[in-house]
Amino acid sequence: MDTALEQGLRRLLDEEAVKKVMLRFGRSLDMGDWPAYRSCFTDKLLVDFERMTGHPPVLVDADDWTRFAELILSPVRRHHVYSNFHIDVDGGCASGVWYMTARHWKATDLGTSTYNQYGWYNSDFICQNGEWKMSYIKHDFQWTDGNNALFDMREPQLVACMGKVFNPENIQAGAGR
Asked: Which end of the chain has less Cβ packing within 10 Å, N or C?
């Protein structure tokens, strides 16, 4: 096989593998499949959810990040829709941007039962042992609508987990990308 053709085929296969990680990321959030969600990440992950959490980027253990996602999202029904995938592969590294609409629903008598986010994710990926993993993710919504109070930020387990994820040591370690 021609070297240029082999390289092009390898790039396409890698792009498809990265896209599958992006899609597994959202599907596992929606299904509450936390082991599948965890499988999307390297062991340490640089996370920038500052627009949503108010906390600067953190370098965090992926198990702790997965637990945070489980605690904050399990009380609500959720539906993530992704589009406009852009993936750049350079050897064993890749970067990607994909658009998202994240819908959340929870029965409540304190305002509307929905909270929605519209924007995109930016991510970096590393191929480890033949498997693509996310090493960086930025949640960059452009606007929201609905009731953000669907997420109970006072729930004791969530508060403790957020203290672990967003502690000052992680923030200092995650300052540079």
From this structure: N
CATH architecture of 3-168: Roll (3.10)
Here the tokens at position 166 are 């967003």
- Percent of the chain that is helix, strand, coil (3-state, to 5): 40, 40, 20
Distance CA 37, CA 53 (A): 19
For 156, left (φ over 0), alpha (ψ -120 to 50), or beta?
alpha
Q: Is 28 exposed, middle or buried (0-12, 13-18, 19+ CB in 10 A)?
A: buried
Cβ contacts of residue 62 below 8 Å, gap of 6+?
A: 38, 41, 42, 43, 44, 45
pLDDT digits (tens, 9 = 90+) for 108-159: 888 899 999 999 999 999 999 999 999 999 999 999 999 999 998 899 999 9
State pLDDT tens for residues 14-43. Answer: 999 999 999 999 999 999 999 999 999 999
